[in-house]
Amino acid sequence: MTATIVVKDSPDESPSNTVLAVSMRKTQWLLDDAAHDAASGRYSTAQAVELAEVLDELLQLVRKSIGDEHR
User: Fold this and answer.
1) Which residues lie closer than 8 Å to 5 by C-beta, 6 or more apart?
2) What is the per-residue pLDDT across 20-61, written as a single tens digit (0 to 9) for each?
3) pLDDT for 70
4) Three-state SS for 34?
5) Residue 69 backbone phi and psi in degrees, to 5
6) CB of 32 within 8 A of CB of 1?
7) CA-CA-CA-CA torsion for 60, 62, 63, 69, nearest 10 degrees?
8) Do 19 and 5 touch, CB atoms closer than 8 A?
9) I need a surface site. Which of 11, 25, 44, 54 has the fewest CB within 10 A?
């Protein structure tokens, strides 16, 4: 199952709290699945790729949410 979060904020705007929260939950679910599957030897390359993409997305959203003054 792959879901994509669509961010409608302009590049200069912070993401809404809802968009950030949804991305955090999605990342949490994928990390939970990854930990479970890795422990039982069932963690696939496809899962790793999806997790990496979602982590990148979350990183971008978090950076946008804190603004340039905190970097």
Assistant:
1) 19, 22, 23, 26, 57
2) 999 999 999 999 999 999 999 999 999 999 999 999 999 999
3) 72
4) helix
5) -65, -15
6) no
7) 170
8) yes
9) 11
